[in-house]
Amino acid sequence: MRDVANLAGVSSQTVSRVLSGKTNVSDSTKHRVLQAVEALGYRPNRLAASLASGESSLVGVLRVGHLSYGRAQSYIHFERIQNSNGLYVVSASVDYDDRDDWKRGLDYLQSIRLRALVIMSQNVTIAQYLNPLLRQPTVLAMNEADASCKLARVELEQLQSMEKLLAHLYSLGCRRIVHISPEHNEIDANLRCQAYLDFCEVHDLEPFVLKVPDWSSESGTYAAQQLSTYTFDAISAANDWIALGVSTKLFNCYGMLAGRDYALTGYDDTDFAPYVSPALTTVRQDYTQLAISISAQIDSLLSDKKPGCTILENTLVIRESTLNYQAAR
Highest taxon of the source (predicted)? Predict the structure, then answer.
């Protein structure tokens, strides 16, 4: 900073005021300082600046386990929002069910002076475990967190969305509905599977849950092999990737076409969902709004407001993978 000050012909304090965005500097002085910064390639030490000012421009994100399509989208949107506000995101990725790794990740993030922290997880036990260790405003981005959780939260509603999806299949006359679900103990998979089981009980349907290794299209192809000897008229896949895998395998190996021989639904409304053939009926989750709501919760906490919970509604998107089946009946 001293070199910048010497080149610009000002004091180090003036350089600091310019770089921190203070307005009590003339335009000509600001211009000279910025020219000197560019000429010298100077980059301020943000940690030192935050220690000096008592404020931080860093927001931490603790990412627990694999980032699904939706959470990856939300993370990107969240980072852009913070950047637009002059803030920067620093993250740590930790294992899904390793508590020691959770603590290591949190220790790393808290070793940096943070403005706030976001925890993105599908493991419901993490909030209770980490809560005593938290030292900054924290927002939990997880669906259906433990009722005892005292952290600020943002959730994407799951149970009612799944019920609407299944009610749509039921309205088409489907009575032998298979649900394909990852065997991982993740909250989204558990909630969607529970909604399916509840729906079957209410409507006196025989439930058939087919467990697969994960959320991938490869898991969908595995499911197709298991379904080759089972009679069904609809498949409810826990996400769009599984739906893509199972429908492709059923057609290529068994000649069964989604939308003609059975109805098919996914979940997430991924980028490819409108463009596969037939286009996929699914549930659209607003990942941009999720990121906006996380940012709003952070701002609320920094304004000394009590932790709140924002629950975002989803949208049922009906396309040819079910509409064609209705027409074919």
Answer: Bacteria
CA dihedral 39, 42, 43, 49 (to 10 degrees): -130
Overall average pLDDT of the 251-259 stretch: 96
Range of the structural domain that residue 223 is part of: 158-284+317-324
| DSSP-derived secondary structure letter, 132 | G
105, 62 Cβ separation under 8 angstroms:
yes
Q: Within 10 A of 13 (CB to CB), how many other CB atoms are there?
A: 10
Same domain, yes or no: 215 and 181: yes
CATH of the domain at 117: 3.40.50.2300
The closest of 71, 241, 96 to 155, measured between CA atoms, is 71
Both tokens assigned to 166: 């299944």
pLDDT digits (tens, 9 = 90+) for 272-289: 999 999 999 999 999 999
Arithmetic mean of pLDDT, 210-239? 95
pTM for this entry: 0.82
Question: Strands 282-284, 315-317: parallel, antiparallel or unpaired by DSSP?
Answer: antiparallel
